[in-house]
Design goal:
Blueprint: E1 2-3, H1 5-13, E2 23-26, H2 29-39, E3 42-46, E4 59-62, H3 65-75, E5 79-80, E6 83-84, E7 88-92, E8 96-107, E9 112-118, H4 125-131, E10 136-141, H5 149-156, H6 165-181, E11 184-195, E12 200-202, E13 206-209, H7 218-223, H8 231-238, E14 242-245, E15 250-254, H9 257-269, E16 276-279, H10 288-296, E17 303-310, H11 315-329, E18 335-341, H12 344-355, H13 363-374
Helix pairs in contact: 2-3, 5-6, 10-11, 11-12
């Protein structure tokens, strides 16, 4: 669950004592013109819960009220990464001396929180990480409440930040404290700007709330923006299937959410990218044909892993549903099975007989074969 920039600044950074520029949230072009008349030359920014707004034409400068009206009219209503722009933030321009990057996020592999800082902000952090990873300072916080000024100061050592170093260290500590208070998955300031007068201000803020903490963070959840569903996700919901579309090439069909997520993790561990989350546990196994058809509608799917593990549910019943669906739909992608648990022997024999496919003894082997086939 993501907050719009305006909400993230108001509800997250403001209470943390991090300085912001004067701004006005506007829902029509006339409001934007009035705001610029009061603030002077301003940046007009589309309010959508996604990045790369500038590249999409959603961030532009307006020098006058008339220009603000024109710019706001062109931005309002446009679509950016599937989000329709319903409001713009008009924020006063300021003379910028330097731009930095700061963020706090989860590091799931280390089971810790990660503090990031770069002396180069205002750019695509993924590009910086790929081309010059040494430009990004990292600090793992392995004990939840153990990130203080000393840690932040050590993290910044050698970056030639001059007089700004103590203030930046203070901001990192405040940002981490706010991250903990709000059950955040991510708080990112890009850029954190040093103005000509030396002051540090946050020119943008991205905030992602941990969905599981929504019951604790009711005020944040009330204004958070959910990612728009894709057409396939909408179709899956109508079918009563738990389907999430991803950007990989290895399709996944498993019984139970936990097994599905484990399969996704194994795909990533071995260098592949999952194309979806789709589980057919419970009575969803009766929907094997619509589930398989839905998965195969994703044109990125180039191989499929079917992973069944039976306890109370019988794997041979689930395998029969998939085999019958496969023979009716006749897909042309390679499929790799891993079947264990109740009804395993019957399921393995059925898959061999009906599909001419030998299930793997280990899930890892099925996943690796699928990754190779998807190359």
């Amino acid at each position: 669950m993501n907050l719009l920039e305006h909400d993230a600044k108001t509800l997250i950074l403001g209470p943390a004592g991090i300085k912001l520029l004067d701004s006005v949230l506007c829902r029509d072009a006339d409001e934007a013109a009035i705001a610029v008349e009061r603030l002077g030359p301003s940046v007009i920014k589309a309010q959508v819960p996604t990045g790369k707004r500038g590249k999409a034409g959603g961030i532009r400068v307006a020098e006058s009220p008339a220009q603000a009206r024109e710019v706001a009219q062109s931005i309002l209503g446009m679509a950016i990464s599937g989000h329709r722009v319903g409001a713009v933030l008009v924020e006063t321009c300021a003379p910028i001396a330097r731009e930095f990057y700061a963020a706090i996020l989860h590091a799931p592999r280390e089971r810790a929180s990660l503090v990031l800082f770069a002396a180069e902000g205002g750019m695509d952090i993924e590009e910086l990480a790929a081309t010059r990873p040494d430009a990004i300072r990292r600090h793992l916080v392995t004990s939840p409440d153990r990130f203080d000024t000393a840690d932040a100061t050590a993290m910044l050592d050698g970056l030639e930040l001059g007089d700004a170093a103590p203030a930046i260290a203070d901001i990192l500590v405040r940002l981490y404290r706010r991250y903990r208070e709000t059950d955040a998955e991510l708080i990112e300031i890009n850029p954190l700007a040093q103005l000509n007068d030396g002051k540090l201000v946050a020119l943008d803020c991205k905030f992602t709330l941990d969905d599981a903490a929504a019951f604790r963070q009711t005020s944040l959840a009330a204004v958070a923006q959910a990612d728009p569903a894709t057409s396939l996700e909408t179709e899956g919901a109508a079918l009563g299937l738990k389907y999430i579309e991803l950007d990989g090439s290895v399709g996944i069909l498993a019984n139970g959410a936990g097994l599905t997520m484990t399969t996704m993790d194994v795909v990533r561990h071995y260098g592949g990218r999952p194309a979806n989350f789709l589980e057919i546990g419970g009575d969803a196994y009766t929907k094997a044909e619509p589930a398989l058809a839905l998965l195969l509608k994703n044109p990125r799917v180039r191989a499929l892993v079917v992973n069944f593990c039976g306890a109370f549910a019988r794997t041979d019943v689930m395998a029969r549903g998939v085999a019958e669906a496969w023979n009716r739909l006749k897909p042309d992608v390679p499929v790799f099975f891993s079947v264990h648990g109740t009804g395993e022997d019957e399921a393995v024999a059925l898959v061999r007989r009906e599909l001419g496919v030998d299930p793997f003894d280990f899930m890892e082997d099925a996943v690796c074969a699928a990754i190779e086939a998807a190359q």
